[in-house]
C-alpha cells in the first residue's frame, strides 16, 4: 500500500523529534528574539491546540499543495488530517517515539498501518514529519538552527498585526538547502501565522496558519494510535 499520503512535516529530523518531546524553550541555541520569548510564554500556558495549515512545498520541479488540520496535546500527542489537496482524506497520529499510525483517504480510510516516522512514505514532499509540523517546532527552528536571526515589524499578514523573524542559516546544506527563513507571529497571540522558506530565489515552503484554538480540552482518546 502506498502510504505517501501519511501526514507529516521539517528539516532536522533528529532535532525535531527531541524538541517535540520537550517544552518550548527547554533547548536553545544562540538565537533569541523577543517574539520567540513571547511565544514560549504563550505556549507554556497552553495544554492543547487545533489549527489549520495551508501548505505549499516545492522540491526541484515538483510541487505539493495541501491543507492540514492539526491537533496537539502535551506532552507529545499529535494528529493530522489532509482536508484538501494532494492526499485528501489521509491522516496520521503520532504519540511520541519513532512510529506513526496512518490511513489513506477514500475507501482505504478504514485501514490503519504503523510505519517508521522516517519512512519516505510517511513524509511530505520535502520530508516533513507530523511532529516537525507542530507550531512549537516551527518556532523552535528559529531558535536552534545556527544562523543570523533578526526581528522587525511584520505589518499585517492575513489581517493580523505581526512581528517578523528572519533567519539566514549558516549552513544551508545542513538545512535541506534552505537559505532564508521568514516567520510572522501575531502581536496579539504570539503564535505563528505564516512561514516562508527560500532556496536561493525559489520559494520552497509557504504555509499559512489559521483557525488556531488553544486549550480546547483534548484527551488522549482523541489520538488513537
Explain what you see.
This protein is mainly beta. The protein has one domain (13-217): Lipoprotein localisation LolA/LolB/LppX (outer membrane lipoprotein receptor (LolB), chain A). It is 13% helix and 42% strand. It has helices at 13-21, 34-44, 135-144, and strands spanning 48-59, 62-73, 77-85, 91-94, 99-103, 113-116, 147-157, 160-169, 180-186, 192-199, 202-214. Strands 6-5-4-3-2-1-11-10-9-8-7 form an eleven-stranded antiparallel sheet, with helices on one face. Strand 1 and strand 2 form a beta hairpin. The protein is globular, with a radius of gyration of 16 Å. The chain starts with 12 loop residues before the first helix and ends in an 11-residue tail after the last strand. The relative contact order is 0.23.
Amino acid at each position: 500500500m502506498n502510504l505517501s499520503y501519511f501526514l507529516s512535516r521539517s528539516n532536522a529530523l533528529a532535532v525535531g523529534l527531541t524538541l517535540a518531546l520537550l517544552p518550548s524553550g527547554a533547548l536553545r541555541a544562540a538565537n533569541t528574539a523577543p517574539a520567540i520569548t513571547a511565544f514560549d510564554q504563550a505556549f507554556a500556558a497552553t495544554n492543547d491546540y487545533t489549527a489549520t495549515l495551508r501548505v505549499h512545498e516545492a522540491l526541484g520541479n515538483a510541487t505539493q499543495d495541501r491543507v492540514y488540520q492539526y491537533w496537539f496535546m502535551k506532552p507529545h500527542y499529535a494528529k493530522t488530517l489532509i482536508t484538501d489537496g494532494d492526499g485528501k482524506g489521509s491522516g496520521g497520529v503520532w504519540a511520541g517515539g519513532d512510529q506513526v499510525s496512518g490511513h489513506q483517504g477514500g475507501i482505504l480510510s478504514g485501514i490503519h498501518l504503523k510505519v517508521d516516522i522516517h519512512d519516505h512514505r510517511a513524509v511530505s514532499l520535502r520530508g516533513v514529519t507530523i511532529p516537525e509540523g507542530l507550531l512549537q517546532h516551527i518556532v523552535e527552528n528559529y531558535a536552534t538552527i545556527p544562523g543570523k536571526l533578526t526581528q522587525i515589524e511584520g505589518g499585517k499578514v492575513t489581517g493580523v498585526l505581526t512581528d517578523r523573524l528572519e533567519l539566514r542559516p549558516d549552513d544551508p546544506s545542513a538545512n535541506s538547502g534552505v537559505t532564508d527563513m521568514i516567520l510572522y507571529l501575531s502581536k496579539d497571540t504570539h503564535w505563528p501565522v505564516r512561514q516562508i522558506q527560500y532556496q536561493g530565489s525559489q520559494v520552497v515552503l509557504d504555509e499559512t496558519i489559521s483557525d488556531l484554538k488553544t486549550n480546547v480540552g483534548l484527551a488522549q482518546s482523541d489520538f488513537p494510535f
